[in-house]
Amino acid sequence: MSAADFEGINLPCNIGAEKSVLGCVFADNSRKGVLSEVIGSLRAEHFYVELHASIYGVMSRLYLAGSRLDTLVILNECIKEGIFENEEEAASRAKEFLDAAPSYSAITAYAKIVIEKYMLRSLILAANDIIKSASSETDGADKALDLAEHKIYDIRAGEEDRSLTHISGIVFERIKDLTELAKESARNNGKPVLKGFETGFSEVDKKLFGLNASDLLILAARPGMGKTSFAMNIAVNVSKKYRDRTVCVFSLEMSKEQLVARMISSEALLSSESMKTGIISNDKWSSITEAADVLSQLPIYIDDTPVCSVTSVKSKLRRIKGLGLVVIDYLQLMTSVNDYHGNRVAEISEITRDLKVLAKELNVPVIVLSQLARGAEKREDKRPLLSDLRDSGSIEQDADIVMFLYRDSYYDPTNPNRELCECNIAKNRHGETGVAKIGWKGEYTKFVNVEFKQA
Question: Model's pTM, two decimal places?
Answer without folding.
Answer: 0.68
